[in-house]
Write a structure and sequence with these properties.
The chain has 720 residues and is mainly β. The protein has one domain: TonB-dependent receptor, beta-barrel domain (Maltoporin, Chain A, Beta Barrel). The protein is 6% helix and 53% strand. Strand 15 and strand 16 form a beta hairpin. The longest helix has 11 residues.
């Protein structure tokens, strides 16, 4: 096997991933922010994944679909959950957006909560690395990910398009069906989308699950790696998932601009592969083998979007405006709790079995406008934005009291080509209010003999209203050094207010296996970022090098302690100055080959994160080498990539080393256009073809929840 891997690596040095190729994306329009431009006019580090690539990716989560991009990784928790990480930063430092607006779910409240995105009828995914464009969202010291669809059409549909797609996967006996329709009736543009997915428990390589030793066992000397509890199931229990989603939009366009409304809905049912060890220590309960633990999500969003052209005014060109209302809920429970809830047994029985499921809710509304100014000399825009979020957690795993979050933002953008430099400047001011409370529980000493009458103690609750004013700015300078060499310099200072979870968390968080405590004394996090890029392209050869450094004062992180709370390890939110630095490299060549075009490339990314005291930031991405081959002949395209993930031996005191692995993926795609105008696209794909035991170091449950094993399948899509 080792010889095979070496041969594959040597062969795969002849690589390009189409997603990384420079000439493929030059005519793509980036719409992720209020700044809509051609990609070749933007010199920020941007990746764009088109609809054809997305249709044949065989991805089950947003993080998985982005994991092969330079500087981008994922923190997974089974097939349904994949939180994006950019240059070592995740959480609220990376904003996931839909058509330029931040996605309002509860993914930030738990490592086992998915980023709720409907993959149906997506035009493209835009990834901006680093804080280079502040118009996107506040606090984005890591970057943004924007999912663009055409649910609200900005231009009239010229013809009717009906697209039907279907996909099967072997690793989970998965099935995906989707349908989208676009047409213009009586001057109105109508868009409709529907998607249904069904994934069973996914296969894993032999010996992929490892349960770490408990402290008691370590004290007895059972701490050697070969004596860890290992399981060898063929499938990972509770790794199944299923979704059902819809999109509907209608718009009207004209010389005056456009106006549209849309409604989207997404429901997900997914298993949670690992959920702490809470049952093992309960009296009278034995550990449940393959206990069913699952979550239901329900999301509904209503959107209004439009633009009004003024143009005859000497100062103003146009005004873009939008509004969105989102209702999101996630209900997490055990199978026995669901059965218990249906039977509605008496109160005594409920007391014996806790309070049933836990429900996470986020009701949000957002309104804003962008004013575009007239000028032949430069591009100038002003942004106003207001957001309100009501977040609540109800149930026996309610580790945070309800919180009310309000944000008001003002932004300004200026761009100009001086001849010497093409430069872009952005600044924003954010006023943020977070109202919440923290409950304090006084634990009583447990006695062997329980009192006949338990005394109920009212919990003490401290209420808080924390207000923050943040100011951020960014400057990008770009210059062509000669006909084939280009340089770009990005400077940014980004301020991020602490999130509600970082401030007010106080309770057992089974997804991380810890009792987590927030910190109401947290200060504003300040990031100073610099990255420098050189890009080269001459004849068949191309390459790029980016060096970046991010100094963060008051870096907020969840720190493990040596204490315990309610029989769980205690973790507290703390602040410490930190520094992240890294390199992103890519070089390759493109040339004719056997009546087609062959592109070859080698890429590498690495990031290191340390606190100023010399200790490492927890769960940092390991270095990776990406080798691929892309061959295109007429309508036939072949992709092969080998992602060599190195071991992560830079870890915090409460972590363990993560071994490296190689992920070999292949895809063969045929696209045909019939005489009647039908577009047929069929793909055969294979992922993790070496059936590697792979773990993400960024995952909270890397040992218990490995990545899926070998996966082969077929994707088919027809447009009428």
């Amino acid at each position: 096997m080792k010889t095979t891997r070496i041969a594959l690596i040597l062969m795969s040095v002849l690589f390009t991933n189409k997603l990384l190729a420079q000439d493929v994306i030059e005519e793509i329009i980036v719409t992720s922010s209020f700044i809509e431009q051609n990609l070749d006019q933007i010199h920020n580090p941007i990746h764009v994944i088109g609809s054809d690539e997305l249709a044949s990716m065989a991805s089950q989560s947003l993080g998985e679909s982005l994991d092969d991009l330079l500087g981008v990784g994922t923190s997974d928790y089974g097939s349904a959950v994949g939180h994006p990480i950019i240059r070592g930063l995740g959480g609220t430092r990376v904003k996931v957006m839909r058509n330029g607006r931040v996605n309002r779910d509860v993914s930030g409240l738990g490592a086992d909560h998915p980023v709720e995105i409907d993959f149906n009828n997506i035009q493209q995914i835009e990834v901006v690395r680093g804080p280079s464009s502040l118009f996107y969202a506040n606090g984005t010291s890591g970057g943004i990910i924007n999912i663009v669809d055409n649910t609200i059409a900005r231009k009239d549909f010229t013809e009717s398009d009906l697209t039907v797609g279907y996909e099967v996967q072997s690793v989970n006996n998965g099935n995906i069906g989707e349908l989208s329709y676009e047409n213009n009736f009586g001057g109105l543009n109508f868009s409709l989308g529907y998607r249904d997915t069904d994934f069973e428990n996914f296969e894993i390589p032999y010996g992929a699950i490892i349960h770490e030793e408990h402290e008691e066992e370590e004290e007895e000397g059972h701490h050697e790696e070969e004596e860890h509890h290992e399981e060898n199931p063929k499938f990972l229990p509770n790794s199944d998932s299923g979704t059902e989603s819809y999109k509907f939009g209608v718009s009207k366009t004209g010389d005056w601009g456009y106006l549209g409304v849309s409604a989207t809905g997404l429901e997900t049912l997914y298993g949670i592969p690992f959920h702490g060890e809470e049952h093992e220590e309960e009296e009278g309960h034995e550990e449940h083998e393959e206990e069913r633990i699952f979550a239901n999500t329900d999301s509904d969003s209503f959107n209004l979007e439009g633009s009004y052209n003024i143009r005859n005014n000497w100062l103003l060109d146009s005004v873009d405006y939008y509004g969105a209302v989102t209702e999101y809920s996630l209900k997490e429970q055990h199978a026995e709790e669901a059965h218990h809830e249906e039977e509605e047994e008496e109160e005594e029985d409920h007391h014996d079995h806790e309070e049933g499921p836990t429900e996470f809710k986020n009701d949000a509304s957002e309104f804003g406008a962008v004013i575009n100014f007239v000028s032949d000399q430069y591009s100038q825009k002003m942004m106003l934005n207001a957001i309100q979020e009501d977040v609540s957690i109800i149930g026996h795993e309610a580790f945070m009291k309800p919180s009310d979050n309000r944000e008001f933002s003002f932004g300004y953008y200026l761009s100009k080509d001086t001849g010497l430099f093409d430069w872009h400047f952005a600044l924003r001011h954010d006023r943020i209010s977070r109202k919440g409370s923290v409950a304090h529980h006084e634990e009583e000493e447990e006695e062997e003999d329980h009192h006949e009458h338990e005394e109920e103690h009212e919990e003490e609750v401290d209420k808080f209203k924390k207000e923050f004013n943040t100011d951020s700015l960014a400057l990008t300078l770009n210059r062509d050094l000669n006909d084939y060499l280009e340089m770009s310099l990005d400077l940014a200072r980004v301020e991020r207010a602490p999130s509600a979870i970082e401030l007010y968390m106080n309770g057992p968080h089974l997804a991380t296996g810890r009792y987590e405590e927030g910190n109401t004394n947290l200060q504003i996090e300040r990031s100073r970022n610099i990255d420098f890029t050189l890009a080269y392209q001459q004849n068949a050869f191309f390459g790029s090098m980016t060096i970046f450094q991010n100094n963060i004062d008051n870096f907020i992180y969840l720190a493990d302690t040596n204490k315990k709370e309610k029989k769980m390890p205690l973790a507290e939110y703390m602040q410490k100055d930190a520094q992240l630095s890294g390199v992103e490299l890519q070089f390759g060549a493109a040339f004719p080959f056997y009546d087609g075009d062959l592109e070859l490339s080698i890429a590498r990314d690495s990031v290191s994160g340390e606190f100023n005291d010399g200790t490492y930031i927890p769960r940092m991405m390991p270095a990776r080498n990406i080798f691929s081959v892309n061959y295109k002949r007429n309508t036939l395209e072949f992709d092969m990539s080998l992602k060599d993930v190195e071991k992560q031996d830079e870890f915090s005191s409460k972590e363990t080393m993560t071994k490296g692995y190689q992920m070999l993926d292949m895809r063969l795609t045929q696209k045909l256009v019939t005489d009647s105008g039908r577009v047929v696209q069929a793909s055969i794909f294979g992922k993790n073809m070496l059936d590697e035991v792979a773990r993400n170091h960024t995952s909270w449950v890397k040992n218990e929840v490995p990545l899926p094993g070998k996966n082969v399948g077929i994707n088919f899509r027809v447009t009428f």
